[in-house]
């Protein structure tokens, strides 16, 4: 079976189509590249393009193509061809050479396809309810007792849950209500963090039910809540800029720290109601400080605001109504809570 090549078509279709800002090749781009296990679409694009996230602009992909890309696979070779005077890329499979062109091939994705961005970084956050409405966890079943009167629970321990009756789910996540997430501009409560503690599996249904804790990331205590485990969300999305102007802020960083770096997860104060969607790429900006340059003459300002500085990019991978989660893809300095995110 031929492997899907739509991702390469869209990823590497370098043409003379005009855009608001010219899309340029890397100064030291390779002439060819063989896809290997562990690659990502973002990473491969970055070997050829200075702005790797901009490849969907080249062929003006529609929304359906952006949300449902086809994949490329380890062993595929991408060759840069400059013979026509403008960059073209060819996909080489053994002795077969396929010229990349803006057309759609309908083929199902196969196991082993490379993802858009590193899955190890976002996998734990794809299916878990990281944001909850006020009081939502209060409706969930909770731990009422422990084996042998343990105070702290972890992987391998058993516990008793208020009530999970026959017919309920077998696999559950364990959570604890976290802090309120407040919009720094409007003071609106956007939601509440759900602190993920681990996973559990039902040993015996009933009131109480018995669970076995199969995984723990933090200490688990009496009173912690259970949420039914859902199937993991897909990661089949394409990096692209929002079609509208987005101006948001970082309201939280994973782990409760004030400063993170590349590969970290951050929470944004914009969500689906603001037009954000999975796959959106936003630029990171640091607010310029107000400084007092000193009075040199009657026209000298007392206070001067330094310009806001762009210093990185984030990739939105999960969207809620009022909030989104994004992965820091590029950063020239530490990412801080309350920094801006904007349409790049």
Please give a structural write-up.
- The protein has helices at 6-12, 41-48, 55-58, 63-67, 119-122; strands at 32-34, 77-81, 88-93, 96-99, 131-132, 143-146, 158-161, 171-182, 189-204, 209-216, 225-228, 247-253, 259-260, 265-268, 281-286, 290-291, 304-305, 309-319, 324-331, 335-336, 340-342.
- It is mainly beta.
- The protein folds into three domains: 6-119, no CATH class; 131-228, Thrombin, subunit H (Beta Barrel), CATH 2.40.10; 247-342, Thrombin, subunit H, CATH 2.40.10.
- The longest helix has 8 residues, at 41-48.
- It is flat, with a radius of gyration of 24 Å.
- The protein starts with 5 loop residues before the first helix and ends with a strand.
- Residues 1-20 and 94-110 have low confidence and may be disordered.
- Residues 1-20 form the signal peptide.
- It comes from Sulfuricella denitrificans (strain DSM 22764 / NBRC 105220 / skB26).
- InterPro entries: Bact_Kbp, LysM, LysM_dom_sf.
């Amino acid at each position: 079976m031929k492997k899907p090549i739509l991702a390469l078509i869209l990823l590497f279709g370098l043409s003379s189509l005009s855009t608001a800002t010219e899309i340029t090749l890397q100064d030291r781009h390779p002439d060819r590249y063989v896809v290997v296990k562990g690659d990502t679409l973002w990473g491969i694009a970055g070997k050829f393009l200075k702005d790797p996230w901009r490849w969907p602009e080249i062929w003006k992909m529609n929304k359906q193509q952006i949300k449902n890309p086809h994949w490329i696979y380890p062993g595929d070779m991408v060759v840069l061809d400059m013979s026509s005077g403008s960059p073209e890329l060819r996909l080489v499979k053994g002795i077969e050479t396929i010229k990349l062109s803006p057309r759609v091939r309908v083929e199902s994705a196969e196991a082993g396809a490379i993802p858009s961005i590193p899955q190890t970084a976002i996998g734990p956050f794809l299916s878990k309810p990281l944001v909850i409405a006020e009081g939502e966890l209060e409706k969930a079943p909770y731990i009422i007792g422990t084996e042998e009167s343990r105070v702290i629970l972890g992987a391998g321990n058993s516990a008793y849950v208020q009530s999970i009756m026959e017919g309920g789910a077998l696999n559950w996540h364990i959570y604890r209500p976290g802090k309120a997430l407040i919009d720094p501009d409007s003071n609106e409560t956007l939601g509440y963090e759900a602190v993920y503690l681990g996973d559990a599996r039902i040993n015996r249904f009933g009131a109480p039910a018995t669970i076995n804790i199969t995984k723990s990331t933090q200490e688990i205590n009496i009173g912690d809540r259970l949420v039914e485990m859902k199937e993991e969300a897909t990661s089949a999305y394409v990096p692209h800029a929002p079609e509208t102007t987005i101006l948001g802020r970082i309201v939280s960083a994973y782990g409760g720290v004030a400063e993170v770096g590349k590969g970290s997860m951050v929470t944004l104060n914009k969500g689906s109601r603001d037009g954000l969607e999975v796959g959106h790429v936003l630029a990171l900006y640091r607010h310029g400080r107000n400084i007092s340059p000193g009075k040199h003459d009657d026209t000298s300002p007392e206070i001067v605001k330094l310009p806001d500085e762009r210093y990185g990019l984030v990739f939105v991978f999960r969207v809620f109504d009022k909030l989104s989660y994004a992965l820091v893809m590029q950063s020239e300095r530490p990412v801080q809570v309350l920094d801006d995110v904007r349409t790049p």
